[in-house]
Amino acid sequence: MARQGAVDELLQRIAQDFETLPRQLQNVASYLERERANIMVQRINEIAAGCDVHPSAVVRFAQRFGYSGFSEMQAVFRLDYTEAATPTRSYQQRIRRVIAEGEGTMPASQMALRFIDASRTGLDDLVKSFDAKHFEAAVDLLVKAENIYVVAVRRTFSIASYIVYALQHTAKRVHLVSGLGGMYREQIRSIGKNDVLIAISYPPYGKETLYCSRVAHQHKAKVLAITDSALGALGREAHATLLVQESSAFAFRALTSTICLCQALFVALAYKLELKVEETIHPGEYDD
Question: What is the CATH number of domain 132-279?
Fold first, then answer.
C-alpha cells in the first residue's frame, strides 16, 4: 500500500531515470509531474491524450517503474492526493460544462468571482506545495549573481517586467531580455559565468525562453526556472527550479501564484542583501 510521500518518491525515481527514457515515456513523465494533483481522477485515455501518446505508452511507463499497469500506479496518486485533487478537478469540470452547454448569460460579476476563486485556489496550492529548500537555493543564486537577466514571453512577459522593476530597487545589475526588435540573441549573448538567468515559462514553452536558457548554460551562467514541472524542457536542467501550478477559469490560466512567488523572491533577496550591508557596518560607526 502506498504511504504518505509515495508520489514524491516516485517522481524522484522518474527524475533520476528521465534522460534514459524514450521520448514517449519522457512525455508521460513530464505530464505526471505537471498534473500530479489530477492524475487520480483521470482516465488512461485522457492522460495519453495529454501526453500525445498511445494509451499503451502509459501502461509501459507504469511497468517501467515497477507497477503491473496504469491502475496500480494511479492508486499511488489517489492515496496521496485525494483531498487536494478532487475539489480542483470538479471545479474545472463545472467551468467547462458551463461554457460547453451555454447555460444562459453569465453576469460579468459572476465571471469575476469565478476568476477570483480560481486565483485563491491557486494560492492555496502554492502554499501546500511550497519547497523551502528550493526557494532558499533560488535566493542564494541571486545573492551571488553579478548580473541578473530575466526572460519570459507572451502571457508571462508581464511577470518578467515586474520582477525586473522590483529587482532594480536592489544594487544588482538587472537586464530584461525583452526581444525588442527581435534581438533575443543580442540581449542574452553577454551573460557570463557569474550571472543568473531567471526564466519563466509554462507549456507550451516559449522558444525564445528556451533559447536563452540554452545560451545561459553554454556560457556557464546559472538558470533559475519558474515553471510547472521539474521534468519539463525548462526545469530539467535548471540550477534551481520554483514550481507553480496555476489554476484556471474559463480556460484561462491565472498568473496570481506566479506573481506572488516572484514578489516573495524579491523581498527575500532584498532582505538578504540588506543583512549583508548591515554586517559590514560596525556599531556606532556613523553615530554623531
Answer: 3.40.50.10490
